Amino acid sequence: MIEVQDLNKSFGSKDVLRNINASFYPGKVNVVIGASGSGKSVLMKCMVGLIEPDTGKILYDGRNFLNIDYREKKEIRAQIGMLFQGSALFDSLNVQENVEFPLKMFSDMSKEERLERVNFCLNRVKLENANLLYPSEISGGMKKRVGIARAIALNPRYLFCDEPNSGLDPVTSRVIDRLIEEITEEYGITTIMNSHDMKTLFDIGDYVTFIYKGDLAFEGDIEAFRKAETPEIVEFLGASYFQK
Fold it and tell me: DSSP string of 90-119?
């Protein structure tokens, strides 16, 4: 479980996040939504340590990520998987080497053990025998699946997905959604996903954190969100459907 408590972040005179309190649960797809510029991406970057918040706490199973020592931070980082918006694969590395990369950085596995884990993860995302292909040789959907394989290589407790369906066609988007949902349930991962995709939200989302202009406007399960009638939610959902 991850808890964010009294989190604030400003850039210059602009308050981006104001007093955010939110919880993210294991075995659930926790979706963070909000309009562009609402602060949801900044929230995710604060949670994984890419941005330092001004004040507040980020608790990973009770440990405050912001004030622990280097060794403890490294332990938590080794338990985090990241699926980036653009997949962020290394062009100079083949599929096998991309998935193996975090294993080399954070594990003491032998070369044989790493290869076994790589093959397991590739099989899990239905990319058997793609080991020697390079990113330039595979489709956007395959890149996303390689990104998922790399994200779960270390058997993470926490999985962060930044706009995982960005740039994908509707059919491929649903494939990626189902993979994320299955992996979350299968391994009991605390999954946090930033998304603009309302179909993703209602298809696989379990818990919703809605950021509106830097403030927490809603936190709760998907059914409560469906029934919510606050002006901010009505405005956001109306704009989302209108854009489609």
Answer: -TTS-HHHHHHHHHHHH----HHHHHHHHH
At which residue do the structure tokens 């699926």 appear?
83
Q: How far is the C-alpha of 206 from the C-alpha of 163, rounded, in Å?
A: 16
Question: In terms of domains, do 39 and 141 share one?
Answer: no
Structural Rg of the chain based on CA atoms: 18
> What is the pLDDT at residue 18?
96
Domain enclosing residue 12, as ranges: 2-79+157-243
How far apart, in whole angstroms, are the C-alpha atoms of residue 161 and residue 92?
Answer: 23
Q: What is the pLDDT, as a whole number, of residue 158?
A: 96
Predicted local distance difference test score (pLDDT) of residue 170? 87
Residue that is last in its domain, among 112, 138, 155: 155
Residue 169's pLDDT is what?
A: 86
Asked whether residue 196 falls in the same domain as residue 164, the answer is yes
Give the model's pLDDT for residue 243. Answer: 47
Of 155, 177, 207, the residue at which a domain comes to its end is 155
- Which stretches of the chain score pLDDT less than 50? 241-244
Characterise 146 by phi-psi region: left (phi > 0), alpha (psi -120 to 50), beta (else).
alpha
Helices within the chain (DSSP H only): 40-48, 70-77, 95-106, 111-124, 140-151, 170-187, 198-204, 222-227, 231-243
Are residues 20 and 68 both part of a single domain? yes
Name 167's Cβ contacts closer than 8 Å, sequence gap at least 6. 86, 140
